[in-house]
Amino acid sequence: MTAYAALPAQAGTMHPAQGDHRTWSVQLVHRQTGALHRIKGQPLTLFTRHPAEAAIELLARRDPDLWAARIAPVLPLGRR
Predict the structure, then answer these.
(1) Where are the alpha helices (DSSP H) in the chain?
(2) 3-state class percentages of the chain: helix first, strand second, coil last, to nearest 5
């Protein structure tokens, strides 16, 4: 399941449940093209146990009409 955070306020709704210790990936997505934000050709991906906070940081000082945060759980190899 993938979630998109349009604005930092909405990112707070994607906070994992109390006691949820999963790891999440958070990426910046350009809304108009669907392309991931890249640094030196590599997609910027944060791995965290606190995806809402990571999304807020990635979206800070960015135009919310152009950028969204994609949040997805990182699944163990046996569960993909």
Answers:
(1) 8-11, 51-59
(2) 25, 30, 45
